[in-house]
Write a structure and sequence with these properties.
277 residues, alpha/beta, Aminopeptidase, 19% strand, globular, binds zinc ion
């Protein structure tokens, strides 16, 4: 199946997203950063390296900016990894999707500004995105699409969807794209055990900041239960969390279809938001 699909994608001149994942798999933070910089250079994407010293940590966020409008749509992920984990789903999968969206954006004339940001130090309490928010603020941001764990499953998970953000323009836009395309999706509220870089924006009062993940639709309730209270699971951990942060977070468990679906959803949604804003 994979060989067959690979063949057609190559004929169409399209990237194989799993190949991107494998480029980052098993590498440490520094090697990931260098691989990402080399890939952006080889694909002809201009980028900035924004270094920071924040709350005792030093790091480098990598930012690609498209368009020259006054307000920003952010598409974000983290490139750092938990030591000892190959980090295929967390978070090479998201790096792959953002690289794919960058290619698609080459043919799109941006009305506002779209910033694709690869944050450092998410695994250290989201320091990279906290430093970004401290420097740039949130006033000029139209919306934030953060990504985590997008390499396995058939269903798009949007989180955290809480009462106070139900009327968010980004959320309504995302849901309309998913419904138009007929892609299965589910929403989750606050997941006390899970956080990611969208939190740095929410904490500064921006409600239009969400995280997207791919999950297995049949495991949706178990995943939600696990993220709320792992002790209630009595050892029956959902498969994606067995791999999460472990030495088994490998690309062999990921699927091209999941990566491609997420790329399509986000690309369509940010273009629609850009045109409507
Ligand atoms: Zn992560």
């Amino acid at each position: 199946m994979y060989l067959c699909q690979t063949f057609f994608l190559l004929i169409l001149g399209m990237s194989i997203l799993l190949d991107y994942v494998r480029m980052f798999e098993g590498k440490n933070d520094l090697d990931r950063r260098n691989t990402l910089i080399g890939t952006l250079e080889s694909k002809g994407h201009n980028f900035e390296l924004e270094d920071y010293k924040y709350k005792g940590e030093e790091g480098i966020n990598i930012i690609v900016t498209k368009g020259d409008g006054q307000r920003d749509i952010l598409l974000t992920t983290h490139y750092d990894v938990v030591p000892g984990s190959p980090g295929a789903n967390d978070n090479a999968s998201c790096i792959a999707v953002l690289l794919d969206i960058l290619e698609k954006l080459k043919d799109y004339k941006v009305k506002n500004r779209i910033r694709i940001i690869f944050f450092d130090d998410e695994e250290i309490n989201c320091i990279g995105s906290q430093a970004y928010v401290a420097k740039h603020g949130v006033d000029n941001i139209i919306g934030v699409y953060n990504t985590e764990l997008v390499g396995m499953g058939d269903t798009v998970g949007i989180w955290p969807v809480t009462k106070d953000v139900e009327d968010s323009k980004v959320l309504l836009n995302l849901k309309s794209v998913l419904e138009d395309k007929g892609y299965p999706y589910g929403e989750a509220g606050l997941l006390p055990l899970l956080f990611s870089d969208h939190r740095s924006f929410r904490e500064c009062g921006l409600k239009d900041a969400f995280c997207l993940s791919m999950v297995d639709g049949k495991d949706m309730n178990e995943i939600r239960r696990f993220a709320e209270s792992p002790k209630s699971m009595q050892g029956e951990i959902p498969f994606m969390f067995k791999l999460y942060h472990s030495s088994e977070d490998k690309s062999k468990y990921l699927s091209e279809e999941a990566l491609r679906l997420m790329s399509d959803v986000i690309y369509t949604s940010i273009v629609r938001l850009d045109q409507d804003s």
